[in-house]
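User: Teach me something about this protein's shape.
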Amino acid sequence: MKMTNTNINNNADKAWSRLYERLEGDGLVPDQERVVKRVSFAKVRTIAAAAAIVIVASVTYLLSPFAKESSDLKYISFLNEDSLSVFATTLEDGSAIYLANNTTIELPQHFSNDKREIKLSGDAYFQVARDEKKPFVIETERIQVKVLGTSFNVRCAKDIAPSLSVNTGLVEVTLKKTGEKVRVKAGESLLVASDVLKIVKTEDLSLFDAYTTNIRFKDERLENVVKILNRNSQDADLEISPDIADRKITATFDNSSPEVVQELISLALNIKSEKRGERYYLHQ
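Assistant: First, the predicted structure itself:
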């Protein structure tokens, strides 16, 4: 990872500021809608080169999962109450979701046969596994987002105008009040203002990095943790043996080098690590 958290957060804030200034200049941001800049993720105090790992048995429940009945389906809700880090979790289809502070998602324990539907309140980044037979649908209070496989963020807290930016792929957004639909492609951003969907160019793609440079996992399978770390870092190159894939871990990674990551995972789970060429191999 080449950029520091401070640089990433500053760049992302500047990108959102420029976007909103352009929309305000076009008269598309009404006075009654308070548009707030993208949340600035505070940098966590860390140990051992900016990474901290806690064994699952001593977890503090910063992400609070609970199950509840809804009709004949069981739903699970996740809430990130940690203001210092983004919380990452992996869904059963392989999609990854990164929750900012005060963000809640609700989803069924198992997706239906025809779609993957979740409910969102707050600010989150999505890396959706492609499945043409089962579109991924995000329901918010004012908009619906539909995708097959892509990466993008959605911001829909109650006190801000809904918005999203697409990093890769293509998404379809429907404004629930009017039924208006638009398609947003990679490099574009969308803002809802005065019941109008406005698409503009995303001027600074570094805003996405704010979701993936300071990541917290809770009770996450080691296999999923390694996939997410490898996916979001140019430097991470980790591999695990199949017999430890289901080991669960709680961890915070803040711009950590692969060397630090593999060492701390090894210590936390009491497993071994060795370097094979440019890769670190973790095993029992």
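Now, about its shape. Confidence is low (pLDDT under 50) at residues 1-9, 28-72. The chain is about 15% helix and 40% strand. If you'd like, I can walk through any region in more detail.
User: That's plenty for now, thanks!
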